Amino acid sequence: MLIQQLQQARCVNPFEELGLKPDPDGKGMLLRVWLPNAVKVVAKELSTDKSLGEMTVVHEDGLFELAMPRRKKFFFYKLDVTTDSGEYTNVYPYQFQEVAYAEIGEAYSTPEAHYNRMGAHPMDIDVGGGKSVHGVRFAVYAPNASSVSLIGEFNYWDGRCHPMQQTTNGCWVLFVPEIDAGYKYKYEIKDPLGNRLPHKADPVGFYAEQYPSHSSVVYDHDAYQWNDQQWIEDNLDDKRFRPLSIYEVHLGSWRQKVEADGRARSLTYRELAEYLIPYVKDMGFTHIEVLPVSEHPFSGSWGYQPVGLFAPTSRFGTPDDFKYLVDQCHQNGIGVIVDWVPAHFPEDSHGLARFDGTHLYEYADPRKGWHPDWNSCIYDFGRDHVRQFLISNALFWLEKFHVDGLRVDAVASMLYLDYSRNAGEWIPNVDGGNHNYEAISLLKWFNEEVYKKYPHAMTLAEESTAFAGVSRPTFEGGLGFGFKWNMGWMHDSLHYISKDPAYRKYHHGELTFSMVYAYDENFVLPLSHDEVVHGKGSILRKMPGDEWQAAANMRAYMAFMYAHPGKKLNFMGNELGQAEEWNHDSSVQWHLLDYPKHSGIQNLFRDLNHAYRDTPAMYELDTSHEGFEWVDHEDADNSIVSFIRKAKSIDEDVIVISNFTPIPRDGYRLGVNLPGRYQVIVNSDSEYYWGSNYDCGEFFETEEMPWHGREQSLMINLPALSTLYLKRVK
């Protein structure tokens, strides 16, 4: 019976039952409305405000009808409603069936159509007579639900008020007049058996409230006016042949502001634009990479347990505020990369887990659908609506927020069915192997879509295994990423540099082995947040020796990193030699810059970034064997490595030599390719960097003395624990 369905919020076809219809029992039209808590309703013509009469109470809970035998055609109307607590006017939602249904059949036709059709979209509807009605169209995918209601502050979170219409493609739709951006809402969903689920946030919600409500918020993405067109046009070239020095930032803890009451808070997006951008620009970084900003309920996850993939977290402001941050970055010559998490999602009750009472977004079998390391659900990468949802989200960040890159988190966990699982805890693929073919095809599609539609952008994979072709094009059998994090270099080099110099000669291969595979992928060298989290210590704390030696080790290592093939990534705090490991609840230790040791490390980072950007040899042939040549990789006894970074022009080549012992090496001979005069352009031991300023000289003349297999050589005094860059002077 209709009244019971309405009372229990179980009506699945409200457009058939409610609104203005031909009268089945007589001539003309019949208007039927459901308004819980109403005691009197008067219908009026919307265009003329003419009264159509008081409606008859069919059921005291709020069902009213009005027969209009003289009316033959549909027209728009409004309702003057009286309740025990007052009066209000209602433009009834169930007269807008065409608006609610509009293009919903295309919601899963393309990734872009998904975010343009699903979720909440403010719009104006022409109702004739020169009038229009403003409202919001809602659409949510819940194919297995027995009913869905829209709830929000506009109906006092009452699931009886706005039952949504079920469509044939599994979506539920409704247009609600007279609400706008800023209204809070959720969905009240009943599972296939009719049991009410915890209220769900919108999977395609564009904005969200924080704890405790986690409500979705209607948002208008068309209001912001961008001013970064020049940046987009200037960045259409291949990023493999450009300098990329990435500053990885956790927005909530980069810098904090102390309020009048003494409590510290995170900066807002607009405050970050004011403080972060000048700092990054001065330091010479080319890009910032922000830890996930997609809405997430638990701050301690750092964003890696997202629930609202389409919503920048409201912790720091509105979506337009985040757009402003990106826009200002671009206007100041800084690119923006965001961490994207398509591998898994948390079980929070308002999120995607068992969204319609079934495993709609996640694999049903926990051997595929549950991640034991992170206690989270794994997306079902084989289901079309999940694939569309994820690719849609990736393109959404590129279109709506103009980001320049997506760094995909936890790629290895997507590629392997047995990732972090013991025997018997995983399901093999159809061929009996451990590759997740569904995830592999999704990642290929993701990269193809990004590079086809956003040529200025790039994709980066955090992938920790030897899976082949991560950053090779899909037409060559690869996954199609632009770059891959070089986790092998990170692990080996940090293990090497953490050793006491007396033992480094026994680990020399850890420093040189990376060149064996350096060109298998397009690599980024990452010293990321994962290396400075709880229990791992800061980069500076990993260094052996006394205070001076630890700082010197770090400076030599960083200069070596900037010279090694591969793009660069450093987490915030690395650049000033932060003493303590990263804590997401507190700020970077900016006070350390009052001390020469730390300001010296910061000075080195600044100079390394600018030298890197200004020196073609450091990036021009970064992904080619032609861009690198060993001078000597076998001097393990002295813990010295030397190599040449090569540019397209031989005159731009740079010689790099690192001494990883605390012993100066006077009279060290170095073979060079060309005769002439060479100048030191970077010296990590400079007093400007809190080094010893050991007298190694600035200029060197070559001699016709064969060395290192070359006809020419020069002699240099190598400072202890240092890295030098030398360039031939014309």
Automatic annotation (TrEMBL):
Q: Which Gene3D superfamilies match?
A: Glycosidases, Golgi alpha-mannosidase II, Immunoglobulins
Q: How does it assemble?
A: Monomer.
Tell me which species this is from.
Answer: Corallincola luteus
Give the HAMAP family listed for this entry: GlgB
Task: Print the keywords alphabetically.
Answer: Carbohydrate metabolism, Glycogen biosynthesis, Glycogen metabolism, Glycosyltransferase, Transferase
Q: What is this protein called?
A: 1,4-alpha-glucan branching enzyme GlgB
What superkingdom does the record give?
A: Bacteria
A Gene Ontology molecular-function term?
1,4-alpha-glucan branching enzyme activity
The reactions it catalyses are: Transfers a segment of a (1->4)-alpha-D-glucan chain to a primary hydroxy group in a similar glucan chain
**So what EC number does this one have?**
2.4.1.18
Q: Which leading EC class covers this enzyme?
A: transferase
Q: In which pathway does it act?
A: Glycan biosynthesis; glycogen biosynthesis
**NCBIfam families the UniProt entry points to:** branching_enzym, PRK05402.1, PRK12313.1
Q: By its UniProt entry, which InterPro entries does this protein fall under?
A: A-amylase/branching_C, Branching_enzy, GH, GH13_cat_dom, GlgB, GlgB_N, GlgB_N_E_set_prok, Glyco_hydro_13_N
The Glycosyl hydrolase family 13 catalytic domain is annotated at 248-606
The record's similarity note reads: Belongs to the glycosyl hydrolase 13 family. GlgB subfamily.
Locate the active site. D409, E462
Function text: Catalyzes the formation of the alpha-1,6-glucosidic linkages in glycogen by scission of a 1,4-alpha-linked oligosaccharide from growing alpha-1,4-glucan chains and the subsequent attachment of the oligosaccharide to the alpha-1,6 position.
